[in-house]
Amino acid sequence: MARTETPVCDFGRPAVDFALPDTEGRIWRLSDVQGEKGTLVMFICNHCPYVKAVLDRIVRDARELKGLGVNTVAIMSNDPSDYPEDSPENMKRVAEAYKFSFPYLVDESQSVAKAYGAVCTPDFFGYNADLELQYRGRLDASRKEAEPDAPRELFEAMKQVAETGRGPEEQVPSMGCSIKWREA
User: Is 98 helix (H, G, I), strand (E, B) or coil?
Assistant: First the structure.
């Protein structure tokens, strides 16, 4: 599992539309998850130790952001043939166990991850109400272990986006396992 960091935020870059199924087969588009004051698109998976360490915080922050008018969607783009823990069945199990308040979508072709420029799990893309990119940073200072009492960088950034339409100028890149791309 190669550790990868996200690139610097490309402020204003528009969100990419998608049509992806959840674990029940329902197709979701960007417009279905767009929040009144912002939208958080995140690329996660089940097997990554970086995601596992903070999944409870991701769920907490998504729930609290919804109260601020920011909706969340999670997308899993790994190749489950090499990582069976990331199968749709296991995605459903994880979403139920953690009580996801957001859709967890399957990017089987990996085209959505490529269109967004996602590179790792977790990889966060925070958009304002106009679907312009304002945050491409980390959740908090946690790595493979949760950092107790770490400042809530993602939450505070998206709260700022909800209130002002702009993300913070200073952002620390997210870090995680590289996305497991299918072989050509």
Answer: coil
